[in-house]
Amino acid sequence: MVAPVPAQPPSPGYARYVLGVLFVVFVFNFVDRQILSILLVPIKEELQVSDTAMGFLTGIAFALFYTVAGIPIARFADTGNRRNVIVIGLVVWSAMTALSGVVRTFGQLALARVGVGVGEAACSPPAHSLLADYFPPHRRATALGIYSMGIYVGILLGFVLGGWVNQLFGWRQAFLVVGLPGLALAVVVRLTVREPARGTWELASAGVPVESTREVLRFVWALRSFRHMAFAAALHSFAGYGAATWGPAFLIRVHGMETGAIGTWLGLITGIGGASGALLGGVLADRLGTRDRRWSLWIPAIASVVEVPFWLAFLLLPEPVSALLWFIPAVIAGAMWLGPVLAMTQGLVRPHMRALASALLLFVINLIGLGMGPQVVGILNDLLAGTFGTAAVRYSLLLVAAMNLWAATHFALATRSLRADLLVQGNAQAA
């Protein structure tokens, strides 16, 4: 089997349309993923479980199946129809989110979240690969930054809808409200998004043999810059997912806020601030990267350092409004790594490897970040409760916030081998 011959590039207008549709899909992806965080406290109280159990539910129960399922799904996306992979995944995770609202036990909810994780594994790897064929290399970081804004718009909607629907009607109705519309969106994707030829912008890739899954994974992991970049993103996500999951509980337990107000505050701050940061990181990477591709990793390194003092202010200030205002720049800086890292992952590999390379990146990010971040915070909460009581969550989050500095170190280390790794692809211009 050989890679398809590159075709005429799609029109800019249609490329923007596809980006818009995939952005909406990713919004739904994160609404359904993150709504659980605003519902942690009422679910815990009804099901009578510990913070450690809720950390398991929001972390490893989702992330393990999300990451493991992502590899074979991405392989199919690299050899089959990427649009259809996204459609099937969207149907699965939307249905399983809606089912989360009718469960009766913690075990049933855990199984539903596993189903959400498996379905959502079919979203980003094929979407990243599609966008790499719809946008040329010098515009990919911006395009993938816009796509990544879906994370923060999804969190905004998840917090606001989840917070207020829970406060007015209960947590079960919140799952139904956000889950069912995804089924209609799947129809839109199936009918209006076309599957482009692979390698549209990389003419030299035509006729290159398609390696086995093991060969592709070995090839990608051999790139030193990719290893550092993936580990840096995972460490960043460890702190980010830990804070995103337990931030609402922090505001409830330490500041006495209600879920409706928390959903509004965190939704607007995370949605607008995070979306702005994701877009800013992508635009800067594309503009500065034309001079030196290493800016794609210097930008996340700098931003990871900048956000730490703002996180400390958010967690330590005694008054909730001032704490939340200091949270805004932390969220903006914390989102700036997404576009540059996702675009660089696509640029480091050949067109028929892109979905699998993206899945490997997400495997590392989510197994460490999503799988361990919320779980570790939950464990620390239970361990520290005897000393700090309900304020234990504050000190748990302080410990994980420092992971951003470690992440910055690996982003910087990745720049040392980036040029050589880009040249492995014969892409001297990109290097």
Determine the mean pLDDT.
Answer: 88
Secondary-structure element order, as H and E? HHHHHHHHHHHHHHHHHHH
Tally of individual helices:
19
- Quaternary form: single chain
Strand content: under 5%
Question: What best-fitting shape do the alpha-carbon axes yield?
Answer: globular
The amount of helix comes to over 70%
Radius of gyration: 21 Å
Distance between the termini: 29 Å
In total, how many beta strands? 0
Low-confidence stretches: 1-6, 427-431
Give the biggest sheet: none
What is the structural class? mainly alpha
What does this 3D model show about the protein?
The longest helix is centred in the C-terminal third of the chain and has 35 residues, at 354-388. α1 runs parallel beside α5, α1 packs antiparallel against α9 (171-179) and α1 (12-38) runs antiparallel to α10 (181-192). It contains 19 helices and no strands. It is mainly α. The protein is 81% helix and 0% strand. Mean pLDDT is 88; it is low at 1-6 and 427-431. It starts with 11 loop residues before the first helix and ends in a 7-residue tail after the last helix. 58% of the residues are buried.
Keywords:
mainly alpha; globular; 81% helix; 431 residues; disordered N terminus
Write the SSE topology:
Blueprint: H1 12-38, H2 40-47, H3 51-58, H4 60-79, H5 82-99, H6 106-120, H7 124-134, H8 137-169, H9 171-179, H10 181-192, H11 213-221, H12 224-255, H13 259-289, H14 295-316, H15 320-334, H16 338-348, H17 354-388, H18 392-401, H19 403-424
Helix pairs in contact: 1-5, 1-7, 1-8, 1-9, 1-10, 1-12, 3-4, 3-17, 4-6, 4-17, 5-6, 5-7, 5-9, 5-10, 7-17, 8-9, 8-13, 8-16, 12-16, 12-17, 12-18, 12-19, 13-14, 13-15, 13-16, 14-15, 14-16, 14-18, 14-19, 17-18
